[in-house]
């Protein structure tokens, strides 16, 4: 059985790891959001933050096709930016405090920078047969 290279595993990517950690922090923090936000802000911020990770995983399903690989990464970047919008709403609605918003926004920006690097340098992340 042929083993895949360690880098081929999307779970080894720093972007995936940071996005996953951020998504879990958002999940636990959003548990305190008001019940009336369950089907709006709570669901949306959880969905978008999780989608960052799933799009990274999906990108590796397209590793043989560089344009598709990059396309899925740009989807991930879009979901990450959406997550920031929901974080801003959560702060403005006073569901999260200034410090939590600041920390999560910094982590969100770090994920965005990592995704942007991958998008601009796909050859460093694409597994060659």
Layout of SSEs?
Layout: H1 14-30, H2 38-60, H3 66-92, H4 98-120
Helix pairs in contact: 1-2, 1-4, 2-3, 3-4
Protein name: Four helix bundle protein
Pfam families: 23S_rRNA_IVP
InterPro entries: 23S_rRNA-intervening_sequence, 23S_rRNA_IVS_sf
Radius of gyration based on Cα positions = 16 Å
| Helix share, percent | 55-70%
Overall pLDDT: 92
Q: What string gives the helices and strands in order? A: HHHH
Instruction: Name the CATH homologous superfamily.
Output: 23S rRNA-intervening sequence
The count of domains is: 1
InterPro entries: 23S_rRNA-intervening_sequence, 23S_rRNA_IVS_sf
Protein name: Four helix bundle protein
Pfam family, one: 23S_rRNA_IVP
Organism: Solitalea agri
Task: Summarize the model shown.
The chain is mainly alpha-helical and 129 residues long. 70% of the residues lie in helices and 0% in strands. Mean pLDDT is 92; it is low at 1-7.
What are its keywords?
mainly alpha, about 70% helix, 23S_rRNA-intervening_sequence, 23S_rRNA_IVS_sf, de novo design (two linked rop proteins), Four helix bundle protein
Q: Could you describe the 3D structure shown?
A:
Helix 1 runs antiparallel to helix 2, helix 1 (14-30) packs antiparallel against helix 4 (98-120) and helix 3 (66-92) packs antiparallel against helix 4 (98-120). This protein has helices at 14-30, 38-60, 66-92, 98-120. It is mainly α and 129 residues long. 30% of the residues are buried. It is built from four helices and no strands. Mean pLDDT is 92; it is low at 1-7. The protein is 70% helix and 0% strand. It has a single domain (7-122), classed as 23S rRNA-intervening sequence (de novo design (two linked rop proteins)), CATH 1.20.1440.60.
